[in-house]
Design a protein that fits this description.
About 40% of the residues lie in helices and about 20% in strands. The protein is an alpha/beta fold. Bound molecules: zinc ion.
Length: about 375
């Protein structure tokens, strides 16, 4: 199967193909599939589930996790990489008795199936990994821009004046500040963009349970979580939510040849964000476990186009009709914004992603050092 063929046409197809591919390696590797489903269904009535596919030890000391679909509709690339790993790397993979490789498919299966970045409650899961929620927490400039970013209609005249207000804001404060305001996560407006939730979402609780159940004996864990939509088209940035002094960041930097950049330290294309998944996992692991994680973020289209797609999608979900021509156009643009149809883009990103997994597999067998 080529990289391009590995891209699925939908969440349902991605799930079916991956489960089938891992069942084929079960003759030579122990395989356990632990599926945690949501209470809701996909557009074809299909089950929506986080599939935690363990290859090797059930309570590993050393493990690598490759995950997809934290941001729902960003999941196509992660699924393609997971399928290629299952087909190309797993058949010859040799694991020590205490090691495991885990493919975690679709952390946000609802968003994946419905082509949304957020979950069934409009929550961005990668802002939802926190213990405390303050329902008033929101950047003051987000409050000021709320109507501009979360319109209740698409009336052309009103839209013109909203975009003019936004242009004025960006001219006054800069694009980086707008990105910070827009993307850091807000906890006040459930129908607004970048809502981080007011409690842990079901997917968040599922993921944290899986981490505490399976990694109770873990001494060393590496983790790659695939994302799309930020950066130059086709380019990858490895991003960490850890602060620059965190030993976990240094461990992550030792795994991959590409640099791993701290969003919290202002080194990344991503501005500092609240409630990140890697921080939630770090808090759920046993004390002393060495943990190196990176969000592998691949650029698709310019930030302005991606932002417009997200804004329109949020309008569609709350105020539009997915089945009318406007709704269908917005839906198609969401797919293109996060998974470009370009064969070159697909080949380049999936090939690079498999390479990242190969590098992490190579370090899986490195001895665990006390200084890590
Ligand atoms: Zn993402």
């Amino acid at each position: 199967m080529t990289e391009i063929e590995a891209f699925p046409s939908s969440y349902r197809v991605a799930r079916e193909r991956l489960l089938e591919a891992v069942s084929r390696v079960s003759t030579r590797l122990p395989v356990l599939v632990d599926s945690r489903s949501l209470m809701t269904r996909g557009p074809d009535g299909e089950t929506l589930a986080l599939d935690f596919i363990v290859l090797g030890a059930r309570q590993p000391t050393r493990a690598l996790v490759v995950s997809s679909g934290t941001h729902g509709g960003e999941g196509y690339l992660g699924s393609a990489v997971q399928l290629l790993v299952a087909q190309r790397l797993l058949p010859s993979l040799v694991l020590a008795p205490d090691q495991a490789v885990i493919l975690l498919h679709a952390i946000n299966p609802y968003g994946y199936a419905w082509h949304r970045r957020v979950n069934e409650d409009n929550i961005d899961l990668n802002r939802n990994f926190r213990q405390d929620f303050d329902p008033t927490a929101c950047h003051p400039d987000y409050v000021e821009l709320y109507d501009v970013m979360n319109p209740t209609d698409l009336d052309p005249e009103r839209e013109k004046s909203r975009w003019a207000r936004l242009d004025e804001f960006i001219t006054r404060h800069g694009m980086r500040h707008f990105q910070q305001v827009f993307s850091e996560g807000q906890y006040r407006f459930p129908a607004g963009l970048q809502f981080g939730g007011q409690a842990q979402a079901r997917s968040t609780r599922h993921l944290l349970s899986l981490v505490s159940e399976y990694f109770v004996s873990a001494k060393s864990l590496s983790w790659l979580d695939f994302h799309t939509g930020l950066g130059e088209s086709g380019a990858c940035e490895l991003i960490s939510g850890a602060v620059p002094t965190d030993p976990g960041l240094h461990y992550a930097q030792s795994i991959w040849s590409d640099p791993v950049r701290s969003a919290a330290g202002g080194e990344s294309l991503s501005t500092p964000l609240h409630g990140l998944l890697d921080r939630g996992i770090a808090g759920a692991l046993p004390a002393g476990c060495r943990f190196g994680m990176a969000f592998a973020e691949y650029g698709t289209h310019p930030l302005d186009r991606v932002t417009r797609a997200l804004r329109a999608d949020n309008w569609l979900h709350h105020h539009g009709d997915r089945n009318d021509p406007v709704g269908r156009e917005i839906d198609a643009e969401m797919i293109e914004a996060f998974c470009p149809a370009s064969p070159d883009w697909r080949q380049q990103t999936a090939r690079h992603g498999v390479g990242l997994v190969e590098q992490a597999l190579a370090t899986l067998s490195r001895p665990v050092r006390a200084d890590g």
